[in-house]
Amino acid sequence: MKKYIVVLLVVLLSSCKNENSNSIKTDNESNQKTLTAEDIITKSIAVSGGERFKQSSLKFEFRDTYYQALRKNHEFLLVRVLVKDNDSTFDMLSNVGFERYHNDAFVKLEDSIANVYSASVNSVHYFSVLPYGLNDTAVNKSLLESEQIKGKDYHKIKVTFNEDGGGEDYEDVFVYWVNKETFKVDYLAYSYAEVSGIGMRFREAYNERYVTGLRFVDYNNYKPENTTIPIGNLAKAFEANELTLLSKIELENIKVDLVNN
């Protein structure tokens, strides 16, 4: 199975074409006009690693599960490896779709089950590199009224997704609080559909570290007791101690290699 993954990585790298880096406005240019949601997210991505994300091989562990991501421009391969006793399950999501292998054997799945596994793999990888990905074509961003959290000023940005290209959970809604001084995402909230209705979470970033120029954080993961609170008001609820800490989102043993720099 390891040989299979290596072959995929080689094919992926060899099939990609170099692309020019997107331009980013300078501070002087940005100061001459009001920043848009697009400007703010572009700056946030830049201070978090920028173009390095597009040409990187990431490895990390999350809750005793191994993950690997290879990105080369617009091509990607996202891997999750589940190990139990002497058995290994490999979930692989790429531009061509989702595949599961049990040890060396391909596992044929119903589309509905494959979509669930695909969304699960994508979710962990998505959160691991935020705000990278928020300038994708399926992402819609709107600037909300600025807000203070713990005495610091934040840009507040709402994010929704197009059905086309937005993934299995395209109806989810996110709000990001971007520090006005550092342009780093310090807090985020999101709503999602669940059997009982709409679920919501609020995350507080901590343990910031840079690995090979890429920013990673862990999160305190909170849930509101009052599910009628609008998602945009979760930061106020957080400051008022009206949220319950559910879990900690911690990435371990992070390794980063830049490819074809």
Description:
The chain is an alpha+beta fold and 261 residues long. The chain has a single domain (2-252), classed as outer membrane lipoprotein receptor (LolB), chain A (Clam), CATH 2.50.20. Helices cover 21% and strands 46% of the residues. It is built from 5 helices and 14 strands. It has a 7-stranded antiparallel β-sheet with strand order 6-5-4-3-2-1-14, sandwiched between helices. A 7-stranded antiparallel β-sheet has the order 7-8-9-10-11-12-13. Strand 2 (65-72) and strand 3 form a beta hairpin. The two termini are 28 Å apart.
CATH topology (fold) name: outer membrane lipoprotein receptor (LolB), chain A
Corresponding CATH architecture:
Clam
Uncertain segments of ≥5 residues (pLDDT<50)? 6-32
State the order of secondary-structure elements, H for helix, E for strand: HHHEEEEEEHEEEEEEHEE
> What is the number of domains?
1
Largest sheet: 7 strands, antiparallel
The average pLDDT score comes to 86
> How many helices does DSSP assign?
5
Helix content: 10-25%
| Top-tier CATH class | Mainly Beta
List key phrases describing it.
5 helices; alpha+beta; 46% strand; globular; seven-stranded antiparallel β-sheet; single chain; 261 residues; Deoxyribose-phosphate aldolase; DUF6503
Spell out the blueprint of helices and strands.
Elements: H1 2-15, H2 27-31, H3 37-47, E1 55-62, E2 65-72, E3 75-84, E4 87-94, E5 97-102, E6 105-107, H4 111-128, E7 139-149, E8 152-161, E9 173-179, E10 185-194, E11 197-211, E12 214-224, H5 234-239, E13 243-249, E14 252-258
Antiparallel strand pairs: 1-2, 1-14, 2-3, 3-4, 4-5, 5-6, 7-8, 8-9, 9-10, 10-11, 11-12, 12-13
